[in-house]
């Protein structure tokens, strides 16, 4: 199998001489055969479409650099047809009055609901439950810290008897019994 490797890729004049190394599988694997080749005898020539390719590449780069960002639809902030105001519809008095009456009725019902004793009672229970749950969570963390010997409820420095009594009290307080 023969492969050609040119040491000088561009030929500037017809009389320039290139050195071409022909690699082949001879009996001695380290041998290379050097052949002198002139530009006239070389079969290499520039493609005739090179100016066309260069022009196309330059036009593509110009379009990419000068183009405005593409709009991807309503998700990209494109205003679209939804933002165009429609025609002014005629206003009917009976519909306007009906709408105003409904708005007043809903406002009165909302006010009555907000001032109802049932809602006040439920809000109060919710507030008490929130405080109770917060205290239970703090007690559980305190128990965990005492068992591990870390944090605000650490049992470090207590005798083993005091430690056991303290942890038992915390377990009783949190409702965790062994």
TrEMBL record:
Domain of life: Eukaryota
PANTHER family hit by this protein: CATHEPSIN PROPEPTIDE INHIBITOR DOMAIN-CONTAINING PROTEIN, OS03G0210700 PROTEIN
The protein, known as: Uncharacterized protein
Native organism: Linum tenue
